[in-house]
């Protein structure tokens, strides 16, 4: 009988421990951040974001999700498979219009909310400096590496070639290669040009230019104006001379998009408020991980999101407290 009582006490004690652990685990909120392929800019930034969130809220466990990038991340957020998703403003615009890689899969803007805007990425189309291609008009009949299928660069390149009246797979041929493989294909003579949407300078372009001098192509103003009118989600951009080896002329007319962080409509206001506060007020930790994160600041809070989706109420609350939003 004595042994039975002891066993009962021990059993009760273990049960309390288990219940305590279960309660603690149940109290932790798990946050997934959809990023990109391993080593990509979004995965680096997302990892830094998760570290900041975890350090500032002991009741949250944030981790990144390795994904296919911007397009997939929008779907993950829309379907509530992740709490935060990194994407690009132009990809979000195409998703809301049901165009590009979202043809037949139009996203309802009411399903998503904005959290913060970030760094700019710039369209860069380059070829070998010693080649015959001097402008976009010379790309008719050429093979162009545009990144993986469904990439931001691929959609942008099609937009440009459509503006020039060049039909895909008829007047020009896209080659779906990673940006690193595209750079190598150019220097090996297997493609005629490469398109990339990235920060400046872009590592694959720097590598290609180190092997052989390159030429960056700029849009003629009439075509630039046409694209800006038809695609207002793109942001006008310029590229200074001498960013890359052989590139001694400034690109006056190109465009880019903003990297953005989104969530789904029903994310709790308090959670988003706390995460936004932590990220905005610890920007130096983001910059330490990825220098271009100096643009993920409160001044750019709505960059790339305005006119596309509403800001989340938790973010609005924080921005009003800081006097950034009325």
Summarize the structure.
The chain is of the alpha/beta class and 326 residues long. The protein has 11 helices and 10 strands.
How do the helices and strands line up, and which of them pair or pack?
Blueprint lengths: L1 H26 L1 E6 L6 H16 L3 E6 L4 H9 L5 E5 H9 L14 E17 L14 E3 L6 H12 L9 E3 L3 H10 L4 E6 L4 H9 L2 E3 L4 H10 L4 E5 L11 E14 L4 H13 L1 H7 L23 H9 L5
Parallel strand pairs: 1-2, 1-3, 5-6, 5-7
Antiparallel strand pairs: 3-10, 4-7, 4-8, 4-10, 9-10
Helix pairs in contact: 2-9, 6-7, 9-11
Task: Please describe what this structure looks like.
- The chain contains eleven helices and ten strands.
- By secondary structure, the protein is of the alpha/beta class.
- The chain has two domains: 29-118 and 260-322; 121-257.
- Strands 1, 2, 3, 4, 5, 6, 7, 8, 9 and 10 form a ten-stranded mixed beta sheet that branches.
- Helix 5 (152-163) links the parallel strand 5 (143-145) and strand 6 (173-175).
- Helix 2 (41-56) crosses helix 9 (269-281), helix 6 (179-188) runs parallel beside helix 7 (203-211) and helix 9 (269-281) crosses helix 11 (313-321).
- The termini are far apart.
């Amino acid at each position: 009988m004595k042994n039975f009582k002891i066993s009962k006490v021990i059993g009760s004690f273990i049960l309390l421990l288990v219940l305590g652990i279960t309660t603690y685990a149940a109290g932790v909120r798990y946050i997934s951040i959809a990023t990109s392929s391993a080593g990509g800019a979004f995965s680096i930034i997302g990892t830094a974001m998760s570290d900041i969130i975890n350090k500032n809220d002991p009741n949250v466990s944030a981790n990144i999700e390795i994904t296919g990038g911007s397009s997939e991340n929008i779907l993950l957020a829309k379907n509530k498979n992740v709490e935060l998703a990194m994407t690009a403003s132009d990809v979000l615009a195409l998703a809301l219009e049901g165009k590009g890689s979202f043809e037949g899969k139009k996203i309802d803007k009411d399903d998503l909310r904005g959290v913060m805007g970030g760094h700019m990425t710039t369209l860069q189309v380059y070829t070998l400096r010693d080649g015959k291609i001097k402008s976009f008009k010379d790309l008719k009949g050429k093979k162009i590496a545009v990144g993986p299928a469904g990439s931001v660069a691929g959609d942008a390149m099609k937009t440009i070639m459509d503006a020039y009246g060049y039909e895909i797979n008829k007047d020009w041929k896209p080659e779906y290669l990673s940006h690193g493989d595209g750079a190598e294909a150019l220097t090996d003579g297997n493609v005629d040009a490469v398109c990339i949407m990235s920060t400046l300078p872009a590592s694959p372009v720097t590598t290609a230019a180190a092997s052989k001098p390159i030429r960056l192509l700029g849009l003629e103003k009439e075509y630039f104006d046409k694209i800006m009118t038809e695609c207002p989600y793109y942001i006008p951009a310029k590229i200074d001379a001498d960013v890359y080896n052989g590139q001694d002329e400034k690109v006056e007319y190109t465009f880019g998009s903003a990297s953005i962080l989104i969530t789904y409509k029903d994310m709790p206001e308090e959670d988003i408020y706390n995460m936004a506060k932590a990220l905005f007020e610890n920007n130096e930790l983001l910059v330490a991980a990825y220098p271009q994160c100096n643009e993920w600041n409160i001044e750019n809070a709505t960059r790339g999101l305005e006119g596309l989706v509403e800001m989340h109420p938790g973010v609005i609350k924080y921005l009003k407290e800081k006097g950034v939003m009325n």
